[in-house]
Amino acid sequence: MDAKKALNIVAGQCSKKEYCSFDILKKLQRWELEEKDIAAVMEFLVKNHFLDDTRFAEAYARDKHRFNRWGKLKIMQMLRQKRVPERIIEQALSSLPNEESDATCLALLKQKNRGLKEVDPYKRKAKLFRFALSRGFDYETISQCIDQLQDD
Q1: Which residues are CB-contacts of 118 (< 8 A; sequence separation ≥ 6)?
Q2: Please, are residues 41 and 12 in contact by the beta-carbon 8 Å criterion?
């Protein structure tokens, strides 16, 4: 594949959906373009605002939090896997409201608690903790939500 065709394809993809630089870079490398062509395509995409890691990270964090109901820790881990810089990750996570995160964790735990068959309260609490940790919520948020759940 030549550089012009690759540029047209990835520009079209980036105009329809947010991508991070790492994903596009990997795609261009899979197409076995030369390094100078990859650099030129990436430069064009960034300069013309087809590709913006900050915009991607904010959209990714917002969507994963709202639709997948993930906590900040899991979102952070996934953004790190996509090689998004730390300052951009912190900026994207700070845009998420904490109250919404607490409410999401509590709603998930209530739903999970209804489905648990465990009768031993200690084991039940451990299962709820593991579940919330796997969803990416921090220990403090989980503790508050479980305490609130037990008070209800």
Answers
A1: 124, 127
A2: no
Task: Look up the pTM and report it.
Answer: 0.89
Cα angle: 86, vertex 65, 121; to 5 degrees: 110
Structure tokens at 8: 């047209």
What mean pLDDT is reported for the chain? 94
Q: Give the DSSP H or E segment for 92.
A: helix 86-94
Single-letter residue type at 21: S
Dist. CA 116–CA 97, nearest whole Å: 29
Taking each helix axis from N to C terminus, what angle separates 139-151 and 121-134, rounded to the nearest 10 degrees? 140
Sort residue 2 into left (φ over 0), alpha (ψ -120 to 50) or beta: beta
Q: For residue 61, which of 50, 51, 72, 46 has the smallest C-alpha distance?
A: 72
Q: How far is CA 84 from the centre of its chain?
A: 11
Distance CA 141, CA 123 (A): 19
CB 64 within 8 A of CB 100: no
Q: Report pLDDT digits (tens) over 27-72.
A: 999 999 999 999 999 999 999 999 999 999 999 999 999 999 999 9
Name the one residue in this structure whose structure tokens are 């031993």: 120
Cβ within 8 Å of residue 88, ≥6 positions away: 53, 54, 57, 79
